[in-house]
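User: Please fill in residues for this 281-position structure.
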């Protein structure tokens, strides 16, 4: 069993490699985890082409939803994007928040931060900033953001509840988040759960949907809404890297258990420093 630090190092190494790949290579992989498919599949990502502010060369095809579409970003807002990659969601958010707002992208991988900064500089986006950091310890002071977004990233983090507590901390009272992520509604085969590539590929690290949503409430958020839900189908040529034919057949008989969800929730406007379960309230 890998430790949390070993898992984080594995994710950092894998996404450093991804930062040097183009979108087509990433789309042919398990959520960008590497060349584990013989054809191009966008098994996770949604189509950004209709969104204002979209820049194709900043889209590595690593997402599993369109959180910025649902995030209710207003002009002048401060937006934080967790796991900002090459800058895709940050640039869409910048279009919504406008010149008077600010967007801060946080990514664990230095190579991704470098790529995103280059993309922002190329476009002259002076109100978009990228910081390297662990989203379990977001490098932003408390009560700064109006909106937090994230796209297929929290599932990569070993301690997901800590991330939701950090999101709560950096949001202003009355602020909100919209997050797309991968969750499960059943059991994955053990061979998939223990595969490092499938972990970095956003599948093996997913947790049960009800547990994920419970973490949102435990962190102190209210008015939670499930904004979107879609099934994720893993193609056979990816499954064959981990399962034999009879195991694939058995897996399919269970019905689909992997879903992409987009979740919205709010930090109460009169937020106290006491979180549910902390023992102080």
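Assistant: Residues filled in for all 281 positions:
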């Amino acid at each position: 069993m890998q430790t949390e630090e070993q898992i984080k190092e594995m994710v950092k190494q894998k996404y450093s490699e991804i930062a040097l790949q183009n979108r087509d290579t990433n789309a042919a992989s398990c959520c960008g985890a590497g060349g584990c498919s013989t054809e191009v599949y966008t098994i996770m990502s949604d189509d950004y082409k209709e969104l204002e502010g979209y820049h194709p060369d900043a889209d590595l095809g690593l997402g599993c939803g369109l959180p910025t579409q649902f995030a209710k970003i207003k002009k002048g807002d401060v937006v934080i994007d967790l796991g900002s990659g090459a800058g895709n969601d940050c640039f869409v958010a910048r279009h919504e928040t406008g010149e008077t707002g600010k967007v801060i992208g946080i990514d664990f991988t230095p190579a991704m931060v470098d790529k995103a900064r280059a993309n922002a500089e190329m476009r002259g986006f002076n109100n978009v900033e990228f910081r390297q950091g662990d989203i379990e310890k977001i490098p932003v002071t408390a009560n700064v953001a109006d909106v937090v977004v994230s796209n297929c990233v929290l599932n990569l983090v070993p301690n997901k509840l800590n991330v939701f507590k950090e999101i709560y901390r950096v949001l202003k009272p009355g602020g909100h988040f919209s997050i797309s992520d991968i969750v499960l509604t059943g059991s994955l085969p053990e061979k998939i759960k223990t595969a490092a590539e499938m972990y970095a590929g956003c599948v093996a690290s997913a947790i049960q949907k009800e547990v994920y949503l419970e973490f949102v409430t435990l962190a102190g958020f209210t008015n939670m809404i499930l904004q979107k839900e879609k099934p994720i189908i893993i193609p056979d040529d990816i499954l064959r890297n981990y399962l034999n034919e009879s195991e694939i057949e058995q897996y399919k008989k269970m019905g689909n258990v992997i879903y992409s969800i987009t979740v919205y929730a709010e930090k109460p406007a009169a937020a106290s420093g006491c979180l549910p379960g902390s023992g102080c309230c």
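For context: Residues 26-42, 277-281 have pLDDT under 50 and may be disordered.
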